């Protein structure tokens, strides 16, 4: 199942992703962020579920299935660059700011930020083509709501 999508992500010039593939890639990136501190907490999994349910209009079963598929895909994928590159190609800038905001929601879900999460956030935002200023604004918006 993931082989075709991973092959698309690994191409030197990624091809456009189908909507289902794009949401799987985004969810896998959310999982990667959550796992970056080596503490994949229930609160982070719940936050990923709420983000994907809201973003894609999924019911609970579909949401959990998407996260489980994303967890498996994230474990197989070689690096963050492939996810972000595919998302950047498939998503307009304003929507990528929304992706960065979703990433911040996951990072801040457990109430702690560590160096590994900060590093992968800087990398992800940069690879998504989102400016440091827009990423900081997204983080502040998330902090106000938590």
TrEMBL record:
The protein's matches in Pfam families, at most eight in alphabetical order, are given as: TerB
* Stretches assigned to the Co-chaperone DjlA N-terminal domain: 23-139
- In its UniProt entry, what is this protein called? TerB family tellurite resistance protein
Could you read off the lineage of the organism from its UniProt record?
A: Bacteria, Pseudomonadati, Pseudomonadota, Alphaproteobacteria, Rhodobacterales
């Amino acid at each position: 199942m993931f082989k075709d999508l991973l092959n698309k992500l690994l191409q030197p010039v990624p091809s456009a992703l189908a909507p289902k593939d794009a949401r799987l890639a985004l969810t896998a990136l959310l999982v990667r962020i959550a796992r970056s501190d080596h503490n994949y907490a229930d609160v982070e999994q719940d936050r990923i579920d709420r983000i994907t349910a809201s973003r894609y209009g999924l019911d609970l079963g579909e949401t959990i299935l998407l996260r489980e598929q994303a967890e498996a895909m994230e474990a197989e994928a070689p690096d963050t660059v492939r996810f972000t590159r595919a998302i950047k190609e498939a998503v307009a800038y304003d929507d990528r700011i929304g992706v960065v905001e979703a990433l911040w929601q996951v990072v801040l879900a457990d109430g702690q930020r560590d160096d590994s999460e900060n590093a992968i956030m800087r990398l992800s935002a940069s690879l998504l083509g989102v400016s440091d200023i827009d990423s900081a604004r997204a983080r502040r918006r998330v902090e106000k709501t938590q």
